[in-house]
Amino acid sequence: MPAVKGDGMRGLAVFISDIRNCKSKEAEIKRINKELANIRSKFKGDKTLDGYQKKKYVCKLLFIFLLGHDIDFGHMEAVNLLSSNKYTEKQIGYLFISVLVSENSDLMKLIIQNIKNDLISRNSVHTCLALHCIANIGSKEMAEALGNEIPKLLVSAETLDTVKQSASLCLLRMLRTSPDSIEPGEWINRAVHLLNDQHMGVVTAATSLIHELAGKNPDECKGCVSLAVSRLSRIVTSSYTDLQDYTYYFVPAPWLSVKLLRLLQCYPPPEDPAVRGRLSECLETILNKAQ
Known about the structure:
Elements lengths: L9 H11 L4 H21 L5 H16 L8 H7 L5 H14 L7 H12 L4 H14 L2 H7 L2 H7 L5 H17 L8 H7 L7 H17 L7 H13 L10 E2 L2 E2 L1 H11 L8 H18 L1
Antiparallel strand pairs: 1-2
């Protein structure tokens, strides 16, 4: 669950405390039913609920659901939170939708419209929330409606690194669940060049995406071979200080190295003698270090 104290949702904190202090299952169910009746009456009767109150009640519904109880209302209030400009309200709205809204829901068109608004927002945090929601739900309807928007985010020079990272993983999910909804195009070649990005998080996420693309469009992604070898070589020959934040037990960026090696397995050995020689040096160095 999201943090409670820092957000000041005292009502939620008290409710969680009440549930934890219940001495029996019957007492817990009684307290939950009382809370559900209260939330239902608030949603039905109080038309002046502000964003904070909606967020608080939606959070309670989420908590009740996570305890194993069915929730059959509150979905519209969660969707309304998506249009908020406050991060915590939008975050709770997206969290509720990701967990509790079915991909066949009647609210899906309204949800998709809100997601579209956040994808083109200048607020990168809102954009990332939208991308995470798409990746979590991964419905065909979402893929068809938003499939052409995410590649634009991925390859745009104006996109921040955190958004590129999220866009890579979101696109990967969509390619796995609804591959026909994503049209191949010039963006694939530009995505391949993310292997050369300065941000290691972007490179790691993009490598997973490119591996998926290479399996479906090998010819369009073949430029990744030399770029992958170059990146692998830089990792293998780097010192501890070069990749200090990505070093695990004195091994620089081991997860990225494995991803790059798996990507290279999609293609035959490089024809270019220089690239082939560099790859051989990488493999020899890796084996020597492993021994």
